[in-house]
Design brief:
Helix content is 31%, strand content 27%. By secondary structure, the chain is α+β, with helices and mostly antiparallel strands. The chain has two domains: 175 residues, Ribosomal Protein S5, domain 2; 82 residues, Pdz3 Domain. It has a six-stranded mixed beta sheet with strand order 4-1-3-14-17-18. Strand 15 and strand 16 form a beta hairpin. The longest helix has 26 residues. The termini are far apart.
Length: 335
């Protein structure tokens, strides 16, 4: 009877921990569709890798993860920054929206298009549910000013709101369907550092010259950024960017083409090998406090990679050079 009780307790009692374990992969090339420009269907694959994330695991999952070298345990507070699982999912959706935007921008510039904001301001890309802005702003609104002072770009929006103390209200002037409006929005403290925010994700108001659709169903977070960028480049240029091979890719991308760090690097190796990848592109380790931890994770990844090459890249240019050196076609800028 005691054993039954202990087993039941271990199953139903939840602990404030997240587990990260190896997941699956998918071919991003199958999810990219280009219209308004010549496109070339790739024969190779750009594989996006996933990890399996579980929130508030039970006692038995915690013990299993603690004994499994392929699974990482994270304290809930450190993993979420105090956010609820619903808020973590919401952040993942917002991060994916930004990753798509950056991937389109960087890929188009990589193949020769010149891009830039069509006007000053910050375009609302995503509004977080339950946040102050959700009652006022909508996706697609163009924010022109805060407290009567012009907002030049998305960075300027954050600075303008940051002049306040969390809990104070700001007056936001925005354009919606050609109509100019000004509304008051109360700020609140961000979960990670307490800075004042209103709860939107904003980007520059670009007007993309090519229509690029990316099916991101069931994909969240920012780590697909580099994979999406390379897949778009492959679709827009003749020749095989991957040399017709399977290439696994992970890493964020920003509007400047910089590749950023991701979590779960060592867990993604198993997914890459399972997909038959001969090459795995990963973010170069950043400088500073996170460098040592990143290097340890990279060493673990390489130790599990077998004969699969693991290459660090810091920019989109690095990634294209590595692919060309591995037998891929050089990018032709004919836009």
């Amino acid at each position: 009877m005691l054993i039954v009780v202990v087993a039941a307790v271990g199953w139903f009692v939840r602990l404030p921990y997240y587990t990260i374990s190896p997941g699956s992969s998918l071919d991003v090339n199958e999810r990219v569709k280009v219209s308004g420009a010549p496109s070339y269907e790739p024969e190779g694959e750009v594989r996006l890798l996933f990890v399996r994330q579980r929130a508030r695991v039970n006692v038995w999952r915690w013990l299993s993860a603690a004994l499994d070298p392929d699974v990482d345990l994270y304290k809930e507070r450190g993993f979420t920054g105090g956010q609820s699982p619903e808020q973590v999912r919401d952040q993942g959706i917002a991060d994916m929206r930004v990753a798509q935007f950056a991937a389109r921008s960087v890929a188009l510039q990589a193949v020769g298009y010149e891009l830039g904001p069509v006007r000053e301001g910050a375009r609302v890309l995503y509004v977080f549910s339950g946040m102050p802005a959700s009652d006022v702003l909508s996706e697609g609104d163009l924010i022109l000013a805060v407290d009567g002072r012009a907002v030049r770009n998305s960075q300027g929006l954050g600075k303008a709101i940051g002049r306040h103390t969390a809990g104070e209200s700001v007056k936001v002037t925005f354009l919606r369907h050609g109509t100019r409006r000004t509304e008051s929005i109360k700020t609140q403290a961000a979960f990670d550092d307490g800075r004042p925010i209103i709860g939107v994700q904003a980007v520059p108001p670009y007007d993309f010259p090519v229509d690029i659709e990316i099916d991101t169903d069931r994909i969240g977070g920012p780590s697909a950024g580099l994979a999406m960028t390379l897949s778009i480049v492959d679709e827009l240029t003749p020749g095989e960017l991957t040399g017709g091979e399977v290439v696994a890719v992970t890493g964020t991308i920003d509007l400047a083409g910089r590749v950023g760090p991701i979590g779960g690097m060592s867990q993604k190796v198993g997914s890459a090998r399972g997909a038959g990848a001969a090459l795995f592109l990963v973010p170069a380790c950043p400088h500073g406090a996170a460098h040592a931890e990143c290097e340890r994770d990279l060493d673990r990844a390489r130790s599990r990679a077998g004969d699969m090459a693991v290459e660090e890249v810091a920019t989109i240019e690095d990634a294209l050079e590595v692919l060309e050196a591995a037998g891929g076609a050089p990018v032709q800028t004919e836009a």
